[in-house]
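hey so i finally got around to running the thing on that chain from the lab meeting. sorry it took forever, my laptop kept dying and i had to restart like 3 times. anyway pasting the input first so we r on the same page abt which one it is
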Amino acid sequence: MKKAKNLVPLLVVAIVLLIVIPLPPFLLDLMFIINITISLVILLTTMYIKETLQFSIFPSVLLITTLFRLCLNISSTRLILSKGGAAGQVIETFGEFVIGGDAVVGFIIFLIIVLVQFIVITKGSERVAEVSARFTLDAMPGKQMAIDADLSSGLIDEQTAKIRRSKIQREADFFGAMDGASKFVKGDAIISIITTFINLVGGTIVGMVVNHGSFADVLSTYAIATVGDGLVSQLPSLIISTATGIIVTRSASENNLAEDLSKQFLSQPKVLISAGSVIGISCLIPGFPKIQILVVAAFLIFLGTYMLKQGKEGPLTAEEEAAQRAMEEAAAMQEENSEIAYYRNIDNVYGLLQVEPIEMEFGYSLIPLVDEGGGGTFIDRVVMFRKQFAMEMGVVIPSVRLRDNGMINPNQYTIKLKGEEVARGEVLVDHYLALDAGNVSIPISGIDTIEPAFGIPAKWISENRKDEAELAGYTIIDPISVIVTHMTEVIRQHSHEILTRQDVMALLENLKKTNQMLVDDTVPALLPIGDFQKVLANLVREGIPIRDLESILETVADYAPLFKDTDMLTEYVRQALKRTITRKFSEAGSIKVLTVDTEVENTIMAAVKQSEHGSYLALDPDSVQKIVTAMTGKISEIKNIVPSPIILTSPVVRMYLQKIADQFSPGTYVLSFNEIDTNVQIQSLGNIEI
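ok and heres what got predicted. didnt touch it at all, straight out
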C-alpha cells in the first residue's frame, strides 16, 4: 500500500516530464494505447457505478488524464515536425484509415469529430455539472435539517447522522469539483484544434523548406500525420467526455446504468409494439429503404410481443398476485416496522421526552441565512452573543437547536424555550429593515411591518433602495441581524428560566479552581444548591450580572445562617453588588430616578405579612390601584427622557415594589438606596405619591 501511495505522485511527475523529454515512436505508440485503455476503463466505470460518490475521484482523474493527453500531443507534435511526419504506427494507421486517400475529406471528418465533442458532449456536460453543483448546494440546508430532525426524534443514532452528513458534504464537494473539472475537457478540445492546425501548417513549411519536397507530397504526408495525431488524442478525449456526461447526469438509483436502461427502457412492451408499427408504416413512403425499415419494425414488434408473453404487462396468476401484494405490503411497512423495532427499546422512548432549552424553527425561505455550509453566519453570531452575554451577565447560554419547519410561513421563524413557543417573527430574505430613529428627513415607501425585538414600526425595503433610505435618515438592518437581535432579546428576558441547577454547579466548579474553600463552606454546607440557584435567578431576572460569583458567595455565607428566605438573601447580595449595579444603571456619574413618597412606602410595609416560608405582600386592591396609577403616570411623563425607568426606594420596600412593577409596568427597574454607590449623583425626575 505504501508503494502504491508513492506510485501515483511519481506517475504525475512522469507525465509532466513528457513535455520536455523526447519520446521515440515505439514508446509513443505504447503511451497512446495506454491512454485509450484508461479512457475505456473510465467510461465503463461510470456506467457500472450505482451512485456518483462511488467514483468520487473522477474530477482528479479527469485532470490527470487531460494532462496526459496534452503531454502526448506535445510529444507527437515534436516527432511530426522533426521526423518528417513519422510519429509512430498508431498515428499513421489512424490517419490512413480515416483519410482513405483523400486528405481534404479526412481533415473535414476530423473537424466534425472535434466539433461534436466540443459543442454537444462537452458543452452539455459542463452545463449539467454547473446546474447539479448549484442545486446540490441549495439542497444542503434542507437535507442537514432533515438529518437533525431524524436524530432528535430518535429515528437514527449519532453515528448514522454523522455518516449522512458526511455524504451530503461529499456530494456537494463532488459536484462543485465537477463544475470546475468539466472546463478541462472543454480546454482540451480547443487545444486539439489549435495543435492540429499547427501540425499541418508547421509540417508543410518544414517539409517544403527543409526537406525540399513537393507541395502535394508534403501535404499528403503531414495531413496523414496531423489527422492521425488528432484522432489518437480526440478518441480518448471523446470517451472521457462521454463518461463525464454520464456521471453528472446520473440521478438517484439503486442500480447501475445498464440495469436501469434494461428495466426502464423495456418496461413498457406496448410502447415497443406501437413504435414498431409506426416505423413499419413509414416504408410506404416512396424512396425509403423498405428492407431496413421492415427489419427494424419486425424486431421492435417481436421484442414487445415477447415481453408481453413473459407477463410484464399481462394478467398475473393468483400466486403472482399474492406475491406482488406481499412485496408491496412489505415495502409499505418497512419504514413503520423499523420505527417500531427502534421504540421497542424503552430507553429510546425516554429520548422523546427531552426538550431543548432554546430552539428555533425556520421556514424554508430562511434556511440559507442559518445554514453554515451555505455561507450563513447565524451560528457565528450566536457564538459571539454567547461570549458577550457571558462577559456581561456571567451566564453561559446553552446551544441553540436549529430546525426547519414546513408548517409555518416560509418567511417566519419561531423561538422556543423548553419546547414551548415564546416568540415569533417574520423577515424578508431579499429585503432590508428600515427603522425610523426620529431623524428621517424624507419618508420612503416600503412594506410596513413591526420590528420583532422591540415592537418598533418599520418598513421592509428592497436592496436597491438601501442607499436612498440611509441618506433619508433610516437605520438599515439586514435580515439575519433582525433574527439575531430578536433572539438575544428573548434570551435576555428569559435568562432566569434558562439558568438551571446544572449550570449553577458548572459555575461553582469553575470558581473552585481559584477559591475552593469558599464554595465548599457555602454550597451546600450553608445553602442548598437549589436555593442558591434561586438567588442567582432572582438577580438575573432583574438584569443584575452574576459574574462576581465570589462576592455573591461571601454574602450568602454571611447571611445564610440568619435567613433562609431566598428573596431576603437576594436583597443582601444586591447590596453587596452595589458597584456593579451602579455601573449598570448610571451614566456620566449620575443616575436619573423616580423617588417614592413616604406614604407609599408605609402603605406597602403595612401590608407585608410573614409566614414560615418567607414574607409576602397582602395589599388590598384599592391601594394597589392607587400605587399603580401613580407609578405608571410618572413613568409616562419621563419615558422620553430615560429609555428604561428607574425607581429608587428604601431597602425594605424595594423587593415588594419590584413585584408590583413587574406585573403592571414591565421593563421598570426598582433600586434601593443601599444599592447605589456614594460617589454617584442621584437626579430625581419625579416623586411617586398617592
